[in-house]
Amino acid sequence: MPIVDTDVLVIGAGLAGLAAARRLHRLTNPLRDPTGAPSAALAGIGRLSDRLRFAALATRLATIDPDRLLAAPEVSTQTALRRAGLSHRIIEELLRPFLSGVFADRELTTSSHVFAMVVRSFARGRIGVPARGMAALPRALAAPLPADRIRLDTPVERVAPGAVHTAAARIGCRAVLIATDPTTAARLLPDLPAPRMRALTTYYHAAPEAPLREPVLLLDGDRRELVANTVVVSNAAPTYAPPGRHLIATSVAGPAVPEPVVRAELARLYGRPTADWTHLTTVELPQALPAADPPQGHLRKPVALGDRRYVAGDHRDSPSIQGALASGWRAAGAVLRDLRAHHADGE
Ligand SMILES: Cc1cc2nc3c(=O)[nH]c(=O)nc-3n(C[C@H](O)[C@H](O)[C@H](O)COP(=O)(O)OP(=O)(O)OC[C@H]3O[C@@H](n4cnc5c(N)ncnc54)[C@H](O)[C@@H]3O)c2cc1C
């Protein structure tokens, strides 16, 4: 799915690619500059319950200057939680299940810098899902771009200096920005190391009755280490559920386990039978998120690789929507700087 913008070709129509294309388009086409921010209607799913004492730590992280957070010694999240004086009980019953769903990392080896910045975002922002589904986010980013500049369903097979190759064509370009998933990026750019990926599996069930009334993320505090979190999504976004039913989304950090096992766990967690629930689907993502173990430093990995090749994606910042958007913005800035410099040199 390349997004073409004049002489810069962006590969990947995910959040990083669209954020980059927006910036490139905005700056290279000022007359068509969109004025609005992404307009996805965010339906809040509410704050985590007050039972979640994690809020105390999050408040602290939310108020510290980010540069200070990133200058702090970098350790694993597990070590950082212990050093913060949190009890074993709170870590095991609250933070491990919560963070294992966020990072797809049960061992909490993820960098304390990533932990600090992601939790900071959680604490300072609102938790929610777009009322019209997650696709509303890329749609909102793509909306100001001319439709004929975006080509979907066109996998790029090879990147060569000044050109990319699809099955059907060679597309020439002065610069190429690769905003695919990290595994594909490493295949297209052999000098880019492929990060280790972490797996997440999500189970979707429809229920005649909502097992909870509130739009809260339910964590498994019983240390069973199977379900990371579960939420009655339709309590926040009713349109997500099949008509007349309620939608429950349940995350497992790691590969899939048999659905009946998960359903039995859900009966225990919600404290009510789940036999009349319908299993809608299981979404297995063996490559859901890039691992972000130390050292991550200041989180901003290089995006300019030389030979007018650029890279963006959550693997260049933090493994999150925020990281993907920030990396796309940063990579587009690098492209513009280089193109302007070459232009000034009379190229
Ligand atoms: C289950 C799950 C839940 C998550 N929940 C959250 C959350 O609550 N909050 C949060 O902040 N983050 C969350 N994340 C993480 C977040 O979704 C990702 O970090 C982010 O979407 C990554 O965006 P990206 O643009 O870097 O990559 P991607 O979204 O992977 O986009 C890459 C794009 O490149 C395209 N592509 C791949 N190969 C090619 C090719 N050869 N040619 C052309 N195009 C190609 C793909 O089709 C895709 O469109 C979650 C992730 C998962 C899996």
TrEMBL record:
<dbReference type="Pfam" id="PF01593">
    <property type="entry name" value="Amino_oxidase"/>
</dbReference>
<protein>
    <submittedName>
        <fullName>FAD-dependent oxidoreductase</fullName>
    </submittedName>
</protein>
<dbReference type="InterPro" id="IPR002937">
    <property type="entry name" value="Amino_oxidase"/>
</dbReference>
<feature type="domain" description="Amine oxidase">
    <location>
        <begin position="49"/>
        <end position="336"/>
    </location>
</feature>
<dbReference type="InterPro" id="IPR001613">
    <property type="entry name" value="Flavin_amine_oxidase"/>
</dbReference>
<dbReference type="InterPro" id="IPR036188">
    <property type="entry name" value="FAD/NAD-bd_sf"/>
</dbReference>
<keyword id="KW-0560">Oxidoreductase</keyword>
